[in-house]
Amino acid sequence: MAIPSFFVSFTKILVGFCLLCMVHKDFVVAGFEKVRVEHDTNEPHTNGSITTAGTGEDGRSELCGTDLSFLGPPYGNMSTAKMVCSPIWNTFVLRYHQREDNVMTIILSAVYTTGWVGIGFSRNGMMLGSSAMVGWFNRKGHARIKQYYLQGAHVSQVIPDKGELPLNGIPPVVALHGAMIYLAFQAKFEHRLGRQPILLAFGTRYPTGFHHLTKHDDKTAVWFDFSQASVLNIDTSQRKNHGILGLMAWGLILPAGAIVPRYLKHKDPLWYYLHAVIQFLGFILGLASVLLGIQLYQSMKADIPAHRGIGIFVLVLSILQVMAFFLRPNKDSKYRRYWNWYHLWFGRMALFFGSLNIVLGIQYAGAGDDWKIGYGFLLAITLLVVIILETFSCLRRRRDKSNLPSNFQMNTI
């Protein structure tokens, strides 16, 4: 009965994940214009065209034709004709001008009520290791703009006054103009920016003491081509599928397959066929997860050496386990004992490093507390099932021992 309970538990977790990842089709931004998001079913998180009242040619010229003189020099002195202007996400509009010496002036605007607005620069489209400029007006109406280093997914790991954006010494500016907030800053990059992963986020709660950011209300990641002012949404479905396949393989199916021979050996040969089929299915899903990871590395340049290295190591161990199935010696072979050691300990190592890599993947991807809680719940269920089966196994051994005749003696040979 242990195996069906695993599948039922995991199905509930997957349903929960899907519900958490769903985005409402319509929402209203705090009394301002209504924003409608038309989703692409292939990319549920970030894909889709985001249209607002007036984002056609007339609306674009209205948004991008705003006089920026209220920002003051040097940002307010720049002619709107020199600046490239592009609606990028929701009510976010990105303006920029890149000089020949690679100094770029960036002005981000968005509808604002309370809280904070931010733009981040990422190496691979992920939050971890990125740097961001964040601006807001506090409860007293004082303007604040700071650079943050996104060391991790938790709010305590978003560090103020740190980051790798090469600001050139010109003070950044944050200003309110009508219903919009404007963040303006300059940075001198080593090379001219081309296709660059950009993170966008906002939170409606004010930063807390010492300028620690509160959790965002919404976020997205896009590829923005600064040479052509074009937006290409990052396909987060690949990353999500990679995580789900890895979680199913190394968090559910392979551990379940390892439980079978320990607690069902008295059901011979049923335990053997169950073990082989379940582990082979887990191997297929694990291999699919690795192949998706390779695609992510190639498409997003997601250079995460620890996660990638452990994943390759676990894949090698899995292949060795599959080979062991075909190279299994007979029970009376003198090599059978060594094969048993090899199969047992390589399997244990694979399960341990597979679980470790799930944790690393959740951490590096900034997947959030939902995935952590879900995987923790799955581990707890696995541990509970093992405890219950171990208890029944001990009781069965005691019962079998008590049924032996009192004058029975074990054969010492």
Describe the structure using short key phrases.
DOH_DOMON; elongated; seven-stranded antiparallel β-sheet; 15 strands
Tell me what the structure shows.
A hairpin with a 5-residue loop joins strand 1 and strand 2. The two termini are 37 Å apart. Helix 3 (236-263) runs antiparallel to helix 6 (336-364) and helix 4 (270-300) runs antiparallel to helix 5 (305-326). Residues 1-59 have low confidence and may be disordered. 30% of the residues are buried. The chain has a 7-stranded antiparallel beta sheet, with no helix packed on it. Strands 4-5-6-12-11 form a 5-stranded antiparallel beta sheet, covered by helices on one side. The radius of gyration is 28 Å and the shape is elongated. The chain has 7 helices and 15 strands. It has 413 residues and is α+β, with helices and mostly antiparallel strands. Residues 1-25 form the signal peptide. It is found in: Membrane. One of its GO terms (cellular component) is membrane. Residues 208-398 form the Cytochrome b561 domain. This is Cytochrome b561 and DOMON domain-containing protein.
The Rg value, from CA coordinates, equals 28 Å
Average pLDDT taken over every residue: 78
Percent helix: 40-55%
| Main pleated-sheet profile | 7 strands, antiparallel
Q: How are the strands ordered across the major sheet?
A: 10-9-8-7-13-14-15
User: What is the total tally of β strands?
Assistant: 15
Structural class: alpha+beta
Ranges where pLDDT stays below 50 over 5 or more residues in a row are: 1-59
How far apart, in Å, are the first and last alpha carbons?
37 Å
**What portion of residues belong to β-strands?**
15-25%
Give the SSE string: HEEEHEEEEEEEEEEEEHHHHH
Helix run count? 7
Overall form: elongated
